[in-house]
């Protein structure tokens, strides 16, 4: 018999959640007319420093962080409410998302006091944006095979290698880099460390990689004996694997893993009333039930984060099932509402444009943050069957 470490302990949103939810909704309505943003399904598709600053001013970034770092010391469950409202409104959150979701929490856990004091308050103000420096040309799923190396000299870390698919490295301020500080040994997970890279000032090359829509989100980031100060090491030298795993749990657990097609599901629900077709009603009912389950699991994970537990296996379940759910919404929408998807329609809020974007981007959603095969491997290991 094995003891499974996969569980979803029930968690309930606190009484303060309702008030917070209506404040966020009110803010979003005002912000929409003030800044004129177009709602987008993919949370990483619209970078607006202005919007991120306005959220920062409301005090909704770093909501759970200690006050001395610019946070509000509120609960992970309240943060869940803010994130689900921003995502379901399709708000332009790409600028601050990575910094607030994973880079800030990583620095709180492993950073030095100097790093925390210098960076966290700026993230909380919505003025400091981060990239993820994990993937490399031959290392994606198999992250332990990275080859970028950081060599310690008397006065610096000297970095050589390259990272790929680095979202928004051309516009963000910092990147958290995973690099080898020791050659590969029998324990492949040993000898890696994390570093802060100043994307604006360090001696690096950032080359664009256009995505399938021809847009510039991705980059290749090249280091050629790039020297950075010794105090840019995050946490302990050699502890990079352990730290990056903790970072990935933040990356995989949130409602962004199942809300990318939320607006399409709303369209589907609205249209079922008109169609009077029991097969369609059943399909849409199933999707709605699935969404409610995913949301309940995601709230449970917020509860685990609140208690300081590690939700990495539960997060892998939400990410994998969430991506499958998103795909199913699109498949059913294409059957039920056979409207021709159009890119760059006149009114970009329209269903046709959202569908066109989603059809082009959906394949990438299951890749970002780890592929289905990798998620299932993590779940199998967690269940003790691998
Ligand atoms: C939209 C988007 C944004 C991204 N942003 C970033 C970013 O900012 N920073 C960053 O570092 N990375 C980023 N990535 C990269 C992402 O993390 C990788 O794409 C992902 O980890 C997969 O790696 P890969 O592309 O090298 O694919 P591979 O690892 O080459 O995988 C290819 C296929 O093989 C399968 N496979 C691989 N290994 C196994 C195995 N052991 N068992 C079974 N099947 C396997 C995979 O499941 C997949 O289907 C982003 C990706 C996308 C799509």
What does the secondary structure layout of this molecule look like, with pairings?
Blueprint: H1 16-35, H2 49-58, H3 76-88, H4 94-110, H5 113-124, E1 130-133, E2 149-152, E3 156-163, E4 174-180, E5 192-198, E6 204-209, E7 218-229, E8 233-234, H6 240-252, H7 262-275, H8 278-306, H9 312-336, H10 351-365, H11 372-383
Parallel strand pairs: 1-4
Antiparallel strand pairs: 2-3, 3-7, 4-5, 5-8, 6-7
Brief digest:
By secondary structure, the chain is α+β, with helices and mostly antiparallel strands. It contains 11 helices and 8 strands. It folds into 3 domains: 114 residues, Acyl-CoA dehydrogenase/oxidase, N-terminal domain (Butyryl-Coa Dehydrogenase, subunit A, domain 1, Orthogonal Bundle), CATH 1.10.540.10; 108 residues, Butyryl-CoA Dehydrogenase, subunit A, domain 2 (Beta Barrel), CATH 2.40.110.10; 140 residues, Butyryl-CoA Dehydrogenase, subunit A, domain 3 (Up-down Bundle).
């Amino acid at each position: 018999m094995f003891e499974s470490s996969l569980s979803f302990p029930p968690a309930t949103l606190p009484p303060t959640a309702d008030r917070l939810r209506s404040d966020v909704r009110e803010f979003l309505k005002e912000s929409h007319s003030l800044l004129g943003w177009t709602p987008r399904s993919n949370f990483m598709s619209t970078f607006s420093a202005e919007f991120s600053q306005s959220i920062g001013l409301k005090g909704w970034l770093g909501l759970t962080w200690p006050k001395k770092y610019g946070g509000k010391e509120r609960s992970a469950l309240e943060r869940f409410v803010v994130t689900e409202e921003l995502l379901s409104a399709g708000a332009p959150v790409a600028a601050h998302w990575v910094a607030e979701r994973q880079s800030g929490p990583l620095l709180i856990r492993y950073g030095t006091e100097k790093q925390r004091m210098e960076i966290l308050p700026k993230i909380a103000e919505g003025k400091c944006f981060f990239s993820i420096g994990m993937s490399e040309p031959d290392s994606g799923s198999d992250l332990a095979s990275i080859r970028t190396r950081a060599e310690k000299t008397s006065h610096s870390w000297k970095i050589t290698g390259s990272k790929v698919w680095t979202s928004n490295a051309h516009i963000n301020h910092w990147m958290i880099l995973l690099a080898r500080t020791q050659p590969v040994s029998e324990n492949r997970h040993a000898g890696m460390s994390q570093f802060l890279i100043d994307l604006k000032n360090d001696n690096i090359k950032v080359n664009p990689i256009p995505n399938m829509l021809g847009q510039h989100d991705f980059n290749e980031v090249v280091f050629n004996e790039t020297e950075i100060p010794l105090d840019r090491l995050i946490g302990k030298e050699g502890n990079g694997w352990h730290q990056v795993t903790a970072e990935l749990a933040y990356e995989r657990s949130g409602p962004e893993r199942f809300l990318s097609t939320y607006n399409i599901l709303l369209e589907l629900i609205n249209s079922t009333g008109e169609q009077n077709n029991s097969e369609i009603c059943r399909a849409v009912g199933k999707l709605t039930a699935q969404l409610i389950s995913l949301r309940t699991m995601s709230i449970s994970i917020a509860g685990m984060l609140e208690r300081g537990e590690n939700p990495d296996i539960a997060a892998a379940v939400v990410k994998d099932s969430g991506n499958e759910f998103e795909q199913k919404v699109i498949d059913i929408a294409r059957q039920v509402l056979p409207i021709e998807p159009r890119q760059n329609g006149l009114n970009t809020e329209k269903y046709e444009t959202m569908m066109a974007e989603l059809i082009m981007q959906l394949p990438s959603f299951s890749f970002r943050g780890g592929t289905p095969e990798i998620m299932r491997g993590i779940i199998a290991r967690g269940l003790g069957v691998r």
